[in-house]
Protein 1
Amino acid sequence: MFELPEYTNIAKQINETLKGKTIQSGSLGNSPHKFVWYNRGQNEFASLTQGKTIGKVKVKGRWLFIPLEPGYTLLIGECGGKILFHSVGSQLPKKYHLYLTFTDKTFLTATTQMWGAMELYEQGDELQREYIKDMRPTPSDPEFTFAYFNDLVDELVEQKKRSAKNLLTQEQLIPGLGNAIAQDILFKVDLHPRHPIAELDSDQRAGLYDAIIATVNEITDQGGRYDEFDLYGQKGSYVRIMDKNALKRPCPNCGGEIQKIQYLGGACYLCPNCQQ
Ligand SMILES: [Zn+2]
């Protein structure tokens, strides 16, 4: 699944490559299933997108807001898979969930890996969508300061018991982060995924905040994670410290054996020595 760094890179690449292109035809693809969230039928989508021009894309959390000028926003979000630009004469993928052709004969396809939204809104209405209207600041927003993060932890500690992994991956508390990034963040600050956030001292809070920002920036700068694709079909170069391949490697800090646990809806990889 794409997380904030991959979306940030794809948005940047769309702005470099697609901005200003005029849509010749729009289609919702050839392989619909119930986990692709559409809000328009094929014919409606085709007639509303035809002749529109791609504007400057914004990213927030795990969502791309692609203006189709005049008057519409194409919203792609919460997905993994491939969002690909195709040059003139390229072959169309076998399966796709979104297909835009441009008047210069280039085209764009998006194919979700598991689920994801491919929705078209009258401009402004997308901001009322569930998960978007109340979205908290993401680590790439200027509002995501340490003071904000510290207040967020205070607020959450009062509500209920939460762990460090819960803070990083659940309920869109920090939008844009997912299990993949969270594991590297927790490793960098020597925190076990189950560590209660109520027990974080001020140094640990500051360390966690710094690690969130640094990890998001590092993955973005490296073009995303090594197992995700960018707009041009290239894999990123960020190699995760803690993923299934870590089981074969010693801990980079202590040389100890990496452990796999199941916790909060997914596998977690950690060093039991460093992350107690
Ligand atoms: Zn270790």
Note: The mean pLDDT is 95.
Protein 2
Amino acid sequence: MILAITILIGISVIMIFPIGSQAQTEENIFVTHSGAVVKTTGEVLDPLYTSATVEFDPMEYLRDFNYGRISQLEDGTVLREYTIIANDDEIMEVSPGIFYNVWTFNGTVPGPTIRATEGDIVRVKFINNGEKEHTIHFHGIHPAGMDGVFEPVGGNGGQFVYEFEAGPVGVHPYHCHVMPLEEHIVHGLYGVFIVDPKEERPPADEMVMVLNGLDTDFDTENNFYAANTIPFYYQHHPIQINANELIRIYVVNMVEFDPINNFHLHGNLYKYYPTGTDIVPSFYTDMITLSQTERGIMEFEYQYPGKYLFHAHKVEFSEKGWVGIFMVNENKEGTEDVKYGS
Ligand SMILES: [Cu+2]
């Protein structure tokens, strides 16, 4: 009996302190997005660590639209020029204490929301400062050579210029299309491309929500879900909107691994324009279902002030971060001369 216990203790000790194992002695430094400096000699889930960290403010991203550098071609056509730079060696604190190797367009996940009007010429100078090959594949209509699939752009400064006419009207994703595609997407190489109709949509408080998932332990299952990358962000920082004011959300589903996602709004219904290609809504609902890269435009107004949830009605997703709050404030300005988004 005593012998058995001794052997058991011996095995336990070996399991806890395996012979030959060495603690990671190199100290790594991270700067968190709250400014704290974290030093650790412990195991880091992602072997690709660096002191470069990504700063990302989901509230700023929400209403940030990049219209490009605007000029006119000889025939009067509007030319919009953008520069997008890819990187693949940055670290982002996606949730307190959870550091993730993000691959970025212009330093953020998602990349910038690019916006043009139907018929404009869009010229995107792409610079790949990553280690791996990357591209930008835009959804929409363009020549084959501009599709960002068969022209991989080498790392460490490789360049490519994508140029095409903006169209069709709607909300379209763009993303890297280098194999293995899933890997290049889940690490964050995607963003939103909005093509506005020549006759503008009615004024509204406009925002972009990219629904995404984070596989932080690389088992091809998402550990976190979010609207705009940071789990629970808009729950802890409610989006301030006004009652009796038109809200327009450009929503894009970029979740990988899970076949569907959805978007449920509380205390209200929204008009929904699938892919945003029509000016007449297809649905009036409080729930849409989206597969990978499926997207659309939602429009609604709140009648009653107060706090309203919006979230995935796939409850697993909302409990892992894809949940937010609209704080509907009384509209003191009335509906005349409203400064949208204020
Ligand atoms: Cu890529």
Note: The first helix runs from residue 2 to 16.
